[in-house]
Amino acid sequence: xxxxxxxxxxxxxxxxxxxxxxxxxxxxxxxxxxxxxxxxxxxxxxxxxxxxxxxxxxxxxxxxxxxxxxxxxxxxxxxxxxxxxxxxxxxxxxxxxxxxxxxxxxxxxxxxxxxxxxxxxxxxxxxxxxxxxxxxxxxxxxxxxxxxxxxxxxxxxxxxxxxxxxxxxxxxxxxxxxxxxxxxxxxxxxxxxxxxxxxxxxxxxxxxxxxxxxxxxxxxxxxxxxxxxxxxxxxxxxxxxxxxxxxxxxxxxxxxxxxxxxxxxxxxxxxxxxxxxxxxxxxxxxxxxxxxxxxxxxxxxxxxxxxxxxxxxx
Length: 314
Ligand SMILES: Nc1ncnc2c1ncn2[C@@H]1O[C@H](COP(=O)(O)OP(=O)(O)O)[C@@H](O)[C@H]1O
Ligand SMILES: NC(=O)OP(=O)(O)O
Prior knowledge:
Carbamate kinase, four-stranded mixed sheet, 17 strands, 39% helix, binds phosphoric acid mono(formamide)ester, Carb_kinase, Asp/Glu/Uridylate_kinase, arginine metabolism, carbamate kinase activity, kinase
């Protein structure tokens, strides 16, 4: 029985820091990623892909604001849906092409995915999710004053606007995702962390304005579909202890207990590596076999165990 891997990569892998986020830039970046992903298919894994949307959804919000006197502005949940479509389209097209080029016949589809959140989540009063372009401190503080943005410094890469990021509670389309994967389809799902929706008393769903963290959504999705592996791809080849300090050293394997201990000691910051480690811990505690954190450029090596950091039960 082939193993199912949920692969997650950040919106910053699709629009790299310093890039404007043109369609061509996004496509070139995704093409590189797809070459790595095809290796996983070659190795016999079933894939569910999920991606971030921070830079892209932030850009859409800016467009919304600039055009609001000409065309109606859309709520943030609709903008998340827009990014699922635009990024899903690029991945679907590039991945299908790369699979065909290597003689592999595997269908690929993007699924518009809603994720239930609690409208009473305290995250709505404390925005933490960085989106959109990176600004200098001066520019960010000016935007905060003029437009009422909440801004933070994002992992030493510059300043960014932040929006609420509630905890994902349930993937609405999980059964459809499972059925597609079992039928041999590569599914792109819960893009941008999923479209945040709240469950109303009458059982209907209503969009809420937020951006869910894609590592958290990927974790939930992986547990809900019973995936064996959660694969979190980012810029660094593996997790480090004392990251950025002279004593920095790589870690290739962490037990859940070790990961929890280092997290408590502050080794993994909240806005960057922290959510990945938390997602890895929850996945393994939720029944997953192993979580892997590694770089996009070395995805095939990471799944084979020659790169990356594996987080396991014991
Ligand atoms: N202990 C650590 N080990 C490795 N990377 C770390 C660590 N602490 C912080 N980082 C930073 O976290 C980044 C990954 O988080 P982030 O950029 O938010 O991911 P993505 O946007 O790819 O989802 C790495 O590129 C690295 O700069
Ligand atoms: N939604 C989300 O987590 O996006 P990024 O990965 O781009 O931050």
